[in-house]
Amino acid sequence: MTLSCGHTRHRLIKNFTSLGPYLREGQCHDFYFFFDCLAMCVDVKADPEKREFWGWWLDLEAQGQSMTYSYRYGLFDEAGNWSEIKFKDKAITEKVHTTRQSFHKRLEVLVQQLAPPYSLTERP
Predict the structure, then answer these.
(1) Overall number of domains in the chain
(2) What is the pLDDT of residues 20-67, one digit of tens each?
(3) CA 93 to CA 104: how far, in whole Å?
(4) Distances in Å between the alpha carbon of 73 and those of 11, 24, 81, 117?
(5) Do the domain assignments include residue 70?
(6) How many CB atoms lie within 10 A of CB 22?
(7) What was the pLDDT predicted at 8?
(8) What single-letter DSSP state applies at residue 50?
(9) Model pTM?
(10) Residues 98-112: what's their mean pLDDT?
(11) pLDDT band at 112 (very low <50, low <70, confident <90, very high)
């Protein structure tokens, strides 16, 4: 499967994997890509298999030479599901947003380094 600009799905996945442990390849299909980040553990005293995390996730779709994206924030539960939740604690908000901003800067650089480069556009 190839986009009109010549990039294959496999090539994009390889590039996205270089960003770190954010890409969930099993949840990607065609030219839709899913990323997430477990930024902060809710309760570090809980058993590892029962831990929940505050974080973010990203839906990214490539079309032609552009990529559209949307970020969401919330809770990753022990069953492995995301729930969109507004953070009430300022420290949690700052930690999650800092990790997202750091990731997004690296994503912007990566898509600009592709030949030909992509543009990134946030979905409304």
Answers:
(1) 1
(2) 999 999 999 999 999 999 999 999 999 999 999 999 999 999 998 899
(3) 16
(4) 28, 16, 12, 28
(5) yes
(6) 20
(7) 84
(8) G
(9) 0.90
(10) 97
(11) very high
93 is a domain residue? no
Distance CA 123, CA 70 (A): 6
As given in the structure block, the two tokens for residue 65 are 């030479």
**CATH number, domain with residue 28:** 3.30.310.230
Question: Can you tell me the distance from the alpha carbon of 49 to that of 51, in angstroms, rounded to the nearest whole number?
Answer: 6
Provide the 10 A C-beta neighbour count for residue 122. 9
Residue 99 corresponds to which tokens in the numbers above? 């990790």
Q: Which tokens is 112 given?
A: 């600009």
State pLDDT tens for residues 82-95: 999 999 999 999 99
Cα–Cα distance measured from residue 118 to residue 5, given in angstroms and rounded to the nearest whole number: 9
- What domain range includes position 12? 1-88
At which residue do the structure tokens 């032609």 appear?
64
What proportions of the chain, in percent to the nearest 5, are helix, strand and coil? 30, 35, 35
Domain assignment present for residue 1? The answer is yes
For residues 29 and 38, give the distance between their C-alpha atoms in angstroms, rounded to a whole number. Answer: 22
**94 domain residue, yes or no:** no
Alpha-carbon gap, residue 24 to 121, rounded angstroms: 21
